[in-house]
Amino acid sequence: MADAAPKQTGPEQTDADRAIATGRRVLETEALALSLFAGQLGTAFAQAVDLMLSAKGRVIVSGMGKSGHVARKIAATMASTGTPAQFVHPAEASHGDLGMVTEDDVALVLSNSGETRELADIVAHTRRFGIPLVGVASRSGSALLKAADVALVLPQAPEACSVGLAPTTSTTLTMALGDALAVALMERRAFTSEHFAEIHPGGKLGAQLVAVADLMATGDAIPLVAADAPMPDALLVMTQKGYGVAGVTDGQGRLIGVITDGDLRRNMEGLLARTAGDVATGGARIIAPDRLAGEALGVMNLHKITCLFVSAAPLPARPDGILHVHDCLRAGVDGAMAAIDDTLEDPDSRGP
């Protein structure tokens, strides 16, 4: 009689358990390699940044296979953070695209082994025409790194796949190195959020980076009344302009206060017999026209208001415009709807 199968002493590992365990192992393997790489980063990295910063042309990024995919991403990241960059496919380079690589450029060539034969022509082109070459590979004695002006050596770290062959850890290291180069260049160039906005006009990111000046209403659209104007005139301005507020100005047209619907309720008795200056709350919350709309929205959220007067100078000053939360909503700025909801919950705080 055959022996009975051994009893299960614990719950069987499910497919989900195995998948989670694999995922954790991969992340831990790659995280360890990144930590190792951070500790090894040295003067060669700084030399690479200096070379790229001094280029009159672009950073030409190239690689084959998985390194090529990483190279495309690095080029895109650099270009979006202030460093002109372009991906050149090494195989296409051998059939005419070498003409894209000029003596004003710097080449950043990626290869885990450093022996990728498709890179030979682009490497030779840089040597022939004196184009600075930054090589990235995991073997310091490889053909690529021997030819390079600056050699960035990836640490000897195991690939995260079960057979140790699929590019996983190595591509993560190369991608992270590209990010590090892009950010170092970005900081050296003093690349600000305003610069970022200039080259990211589209999509959600562009909406977050739009300036107040691009959204504000100006000129006759600004709801303004003189301090000595009778309240019936002020109410007419508040209604016609559609902002639910009126800025109150002095004899020189400078903003000195604001009337909100909360001010109206607090001054109901004898309201129509008063002047705008009698009812207004002194001062107003303002924002400069060159600030980002997202920042303006943060001020509105903090104070539970729906609009801000815009002024490049501190008050009292002539206002440059007015920004309403609906302007931010139409532009797609994150948080605009939340600002509207918060204000509806606190109707006494709708003005600047």
- CATH homologous superfamily caption of the largest domain: Glucose-6-phosphate isomerase like protein, domain 1
Q: What are the segments in which pLDDT stays under 50 over at least 5 consecutive residues?
A: 337-350
* CATH level-3 fold name of the largest domain: Rossmann fold
Q: How far from one another are the termini?
A: 89 Å
Helix content: 40-55%
What sequence of helices (H) and strands (E) makes up the elements?
A: HHEHEHEHEHEHHHHEHEEHHEEHEEHH
Taken from the alpha-carbon principal axes, the silhouette is elongated
Q: List the total number of helices.
A: 16
Strand-pairing-aware structural class? alpha/beta
Largest sheet: 5 strands, parallel
Number of separate domains: 2
CATH architecture descriptor text of the largest domain: 3-Layer(aba) Sandwich
CATH class term of the largest domain: Alpha Beta
Number of strands: 12
Structural Rg: 31 Å
Oligomeric organization of the protein chains: single chain
Which strand order do you get reading across the main beta sheet? 2-1-3-4-5
Describe what is shown at a glance.
This protein is α/β, with parallel strands linked by helices. It contains 16 helices and twelve strands.
